Amino acid sequence: MTSKLFGVLVIRADLVEQMVAHARRDHPREACGQLLGPEESDRPERYVPMTNADDSDAQGSDYRFDSKEQLRVHREAMERDEEPVVVFHSHTRVPRRPLTDTGLPEAYPSVKDIEYMGLQPGVHFAIVALTGPDAEPDLRSFLLDDAGEVVEDEIQVVENYMFSHTGAGDVPDRD
Amino acid sequence: MSATVSIPTILRTHTGGEKQVKADGSTLQEVITDLEANHPGIKDRLVTDGALHRFVNVYVNDEDVRFAGGLDAQVPDGGTVTILPAVAGGR
Hints:
Oligomer: heterodimer
Radius of gyration of chain B: 12 Å
Protein name (chain B): MoaD/ThiS family protein
Number of strands of chain B: 8
Order of helices and strands of chain B: EEHHEEEEEE
Largest interface: A-B, 39 and 18 residues
Organism (chain B): Actinomycetospora endophytica
Number of domains of chain B: 1
Helix content of chain A: 10-25%
Number of helices of chain A: 3
InterPro entries (chain B): Beta-grasp_dom_sf, Mopterin_synth/thiamin_S_b, Sulfur_Carrier/Prot_Modifier, ThiS/MoaD-like
CATH architecture of chain B: Roll
Structural class of chain A: alpha/beta
Order of helices and strands of chain A: EHEEEHEHEEEE
Structural class of chain B: alpha+beta
Distance between the termini of chain A: 16 Å
């Protein structure tokens, strides 16, 4: 049941809630995590919060997966025939190179984000921008096309994947 | 001295799509040299200016080699070398 549509992220509402809750919990530090799903499915099934091991900035305004934790999660994923479908992190501060003059965090990849996105072609990079721990979250998702250009995903939040039509030949499971 | 090397998606173009390959060597440096002999181009994706590239995490068994000798890390016979993309970013 492979149905990949480039530039579309279909995601369960409970997974969105888990990402946003993590972003709120860690605010004002950037939170990070990954959504794993069956290989080649483009379907995120579970959220794995990751430890932000970045120490380049005392305020936590960058992020880096803890490398040992990443290895452990990778091995577990391999055993379960899963792969990262979405890499998530939050933005809690004004970007170093803002795209707007609002003075607010932006749910848009930074130059550094884009550099690292290039290492995982086909993986969605979801960003939650939060102006405060209780603020309304701005969730957007991006990936790079073959030319390395940033493409914004259309996000479709669904209650479950059974009845979400993500492409031709996508047939609901039946008991 | 042979190790199993786990290859991340982005480098599988160098291994004909294989997720795991064998390579010989008793240090990470030697393993990478042997990888390059069989999968040309892969070394440049891992090493820059004589050190591991900041965009990759390399592990020998359970150890991140950044904290275990870098390219001089010992690779035991039958050991596992895992390569993963570094995941990072910032505002």
